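Journal club prep, notes for RB
We'll compare a predicted complex against what the paper describes. Inputs for the D-mannose case:
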Amino acid sequence: MEFTFRWFGPKDPAKINHIRQVGVTGIVTSLNHIKYGEKWTDYEIKKRKKIINEVKNSKELKLKWSVAESLPVHNDIKSRSGKYKYYIDQYKDSLVNLSKNKIKTICYNFMPLIDWVRTDLNYKLENNVIALKYDHLKMCAFEKFILKIKDAEKRYTKNQIIKAKEIYKKMKNSEKQSLKKSLLGGLAANDRKFSINELKYEIDKFKEINHTDLRNNLKSFLIEIFPILREHQIKYCIHPDDPPYNIFGLPRIMSNENDIKYLTSIFKHENNGITLCTGSLGVDKKNNIEIIIKKYGKYINFIHLRNIKRDNNSKNFYESDHLDGDINMVNIIKLILKEEKIRERNNRPFNIPMRPDHGHTIIYDQDKIIIPGYSLLGRMKGLAELKGIIKALN
Ligand code: DNO
């Protein structure tokens, strides 16, 4: 595996010359400053590449921009409405410009409106580290009492709504702000942030789209861009739904093995690949990640290793230590290494880029402004543990 690390550009509190020291050779980044949906120009790509390549170190230790995560798919493309034709043309130009700059692994997602969500950004574990958590009753409280979505009743039981109301009443203002930050698109890598009214309006608009429609829209989009993916040998890789729940009642179509089967049936080629995100898929205990790797390993173009601890009596989960959660990380890594061996035997590039996904906020990072889930020290700790497993298995 190629060891990589996510970096949110010059404004990221995790400095790139520190990232160089944690033991990676690849950077995973995105041009978040470019207006949502507009093309990534050659000039802007080169500008970011230059910063990465110039990290002060000796020649052989150069960092490189390994993965574009993500090249955002505009919501009009997902809903196949509004200016979707324009945004598909912009997207095609971005793909070509990235490829011309030798950035060939490109991550994306097809989650409607909002990317990943959590409800608690400061969830303290028993050893005082800070983790991210998803609490379904807090999601209910947000939908019922903050967003005030009409059809929330359909998705929650009476009892859940009663409990959510009690929780909401006890919430401090800071907790309500944190809830809004996460659920209005404020978490890193979200393509855009919403106001309460904007989100309500967009959810209403998306209501016309069901699971089948969204799948069809993904297929139409892939058909449009696949010639470019093939011609430029792009390792395109869709990120799973995080979490694999229909957030706000909107369909999510990359949540399980069936969805992966559907995606790979559109074009049976590694240019139409997946991002294996263990933390996202792992939230649903019905997902057997080891089976998914065995069946769809050849489509894995990018890997996020993250662990979670589920609450077996609800949809709740929190992000645990990379090796200490409900996911058997050693078995997962074993299967990934096996897949890489198969690729090596078939003369296929076999060094799959992997990044430690998220990390607890620990030690001095707790006294700093960090991007939730993306502290330097917590991710460094996770990477070190994962590298230890890989070394031992190799
Ligand atoms: C969360 C990330 C996601 C991922 C995007 C990919 O931390 O795993 O935001 O980057 O969904 O498009």
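Talking point for the session: Residues 91 and 268 are 22 Å apart (CA to CA).
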